[in-house]
Amino acid sequence: MSLLQDILYKVHLEQVIGSTNIEVTNVQLDSRKVESGGLFVAIKGAISDGHDFIGKAISLGATSIVCEDMPAEIKENVTYVQVKNSHEALGYIANNFYDNPSQKIKLVGVTGTNGKTTIATLLYKLFTGLNYKCGLVSTVQNIIGTKALAAERTTPDAVSLCALIKQMVDEGCQYVFMESSSIAIDQDRITGLDFDGALFSNLTLDHLDYHKTFDNYLKAKKKFFDELPAHAFAITNIDDKNGGVMLQNTVAKKYTYSLKTLADFKGRILENSLTGLEMLINETEVHFRLIGEFNAYNLLAVYGAAVCLGEPKDEVLRVLSMLSGAEGRFDYHVSSSKIISIVDYAHTPDALENVLSTIKKLRKGSEKVITVVGCGGDRDHSKRPIMAQDAANQSDQVILTSDNPRSENPYTILKEMEAGLNSAGKRKTITIEDRKEAIKAAVKFANPGDIILVAGKGHEKYQEINGVKHHFDDKEVLKEMFELLEK
Ligand SMILES: CC(=O)N[C@H]1[C@@H](OP(=O)(O)OP(=O)(O)OC[C@H]2O[C@@H](n3ccc(=O)[nH]c3=O)[C@H](O)[C@@H]2O)O[C@H](CO)[C@@H](O)[C@@H]1O[C@H](C)C(=O)N[C@@H](C)C(=O)N[C@H](CCC(=O)O)C(=O)O
Ligand SMILES: Nc1ncnc2c1ncn2[C@@H]1O[C@H](COP(=O)(O)OP(=O)(O)OP(=O)(O)O)[C@@H](O)[C@H]1O
Ligand SMILES: N[C@H](CCC[C@H](N)C(=O)O)C(=O)O
Ligand SMILES: [Mg+2]
């Protein structure tokens, strides 16, 4: 329990009606979860307006309300706090309510279009390997020590996030590695957290449905670095066009990593094959189990962060060389008839291009590349035609299929993808809406030595159709089809 006046520390107040000298027992941004003695923060969202649920929150026992607009009806025994920005206020309130857990551990955040999960997961595995108890907040899962919890989003809302970090602190974690998605940064889900370090991977096309312009998307990522404290470190990929911009206005200690130019953490790829990466990192030669140039970047970022956190370089490289990546990221399998299948979470044009160019470089001879790919519904439309053509550019055969159609008609999504194909692309592409049938067709088309890429869903264990999540697992379906067709 805490006093409302303490919980409001750092919040920009406009007006207060009622006493702030009252106890708050729970903080909620969803009226349906409010319990007796609760503080309800009304947020204007994309779908609904939390201000419409203030009455409901009070009927469930809320005694404090934080809002941008004062309601017409003011109830006795309820304290109303008007703020300029409810999202930002919620960030500070959540941190104060949970007693600022991020100040009690080392917290490192990762942002960028692609690579966040990989980098955060590798950091978690590395520091666990260095004998620390660690927490992970990621798209695939959240982990406290060795206990895995399901993750609903990449970066949870401010209340769930602070509660999670508090649990990590209470259970003795010394480090927390987390993904900071651009949407979460924009919605102040990470406002008020005390970061010790931040990493930037890259910025390419995604989430324009939400951010509207590339400039807004860039600004959301940059806000993370602009708000870092001076004691934190900030590491950027200087080979990315926007890598420098990210650190322009930060007061944190600045570091760079690169595969192409001089940098604090400099890497060079000596060999890139299906057995892994042979790299020179700041003059030390190391072999890694991860595959592909994009993972060379991820490994450099992880190495840089570990060095910034004071770990001995040789020990970092020794542990890092033994690690595998995150589930569903370049997840590689060879069937009994020697057909190679790769499940990868590439769901942006850049990621798809990277995965396919990695596959291309790994090909030895005349093996065919068969790509199965779709695009998610209720997400950025602009990436759909581009991803179809990207797939066609670097594959011998493309099967367009459904990803998570969500509330959209899957055929509309597929039509938008097909519209991006040039005539050569059209000739090698077929569309099979049913994802299971699409994977089956790919396995049928493949001969020994050929490579099947199933892109877009990676670790996901479901397919979301009209608000219902049906069990679906690309790796499981591939296995089933190999068993069925290779008998
Ligand atoms: C577009 C977006 O990010 N939406 C998120 C956002 O919703 P919103 O603010 O628009 O909420 P809303 O539904 O309009 O409701 C407004 C407010 O009214 C409240 N409400 C609503 C109904 C009610 O009865 N009572 C009530 O109090 C809601 O709790 C909310 O506070 O805030 C909600 C609470 O945190 C999130 O659940 C919701 O995530 C939706 C489900 C989502 O799909 N988000 C995705 C796009 C997302 O966040 N992705 C990123 C990036 C992914 C990546 O690249 O890895 C992520 O970090 O996961
Ligand atoms: N550094 C990188 N640069 C470009 N592409 C990458 C990089 N790292 C991974 N990828 C590709 O992007 C896909 C997603 O990687 P990852 O899950 O690590 O990214 P993410 O930023 O967490 O994505 P999301 O925002 O959806 O959670 C991978 O499956 C791979 O195809
Ligand atoms: N975190 C990303 C994941 C996309 C994964 C893809 N399978 C899809 O459903 O579009 C998002 O919510 O936009
Ligand atoms: Mg992620």
From TrEMBL:
Pathway: Cell wall biogenesis; peptidoglycan biosynthesis. It comes from the Bacteria. Gene3D superfamilies: Mur ligase, C-terminal domain, Mur-like, catalytic domain, MurE/MurF, N-terminal domain. GO terms for biological process: cell division; cell wall organization; peptidoglycan biosynthetic process; regulation of cell shape. ATP binds at G112, T113, N114, G115, K116, T117, T118. Its EC number is 6.3.2.13. It is found in: Cytoplasm. Signal peptide: none annotated. The keyword Lipid biosynthesis does not apply. One of its GO terms (cellular component) is cytoplasm. Residues 328-458 form the Mur ligase C-terminal domain. Pfam families: Mur_ligase, Mur_ligase_C, Mur_ligase_M. The modification N6-carboxylysine is found at K221. One of its GO terms (molecular function) is UDP-N-acetylmuramoylalanyl-D-glutamate-2,6-diaminopimelate ligase activity. A motif (Meso-diaminopimelate recognition motif) lies at residues 403-406. The keyword Cell wall biogenesis/degradation applies. PANTHER family: MUR LIGASE FAMILY MEMBER (PTHR23135), UDP-N-ACETYLMURAMOYL-L-ALANYL-D-GLUTAMATE--2,6-DIAMINOPIMELATE LIGASE MURE HOMOLOG, CHLOROPLASTIC (PTHR23135:SF4). This is UDP-N-acetylmuramoyl-L-alanyl-D-glutamate--2,6-diaminopimelate ligase.
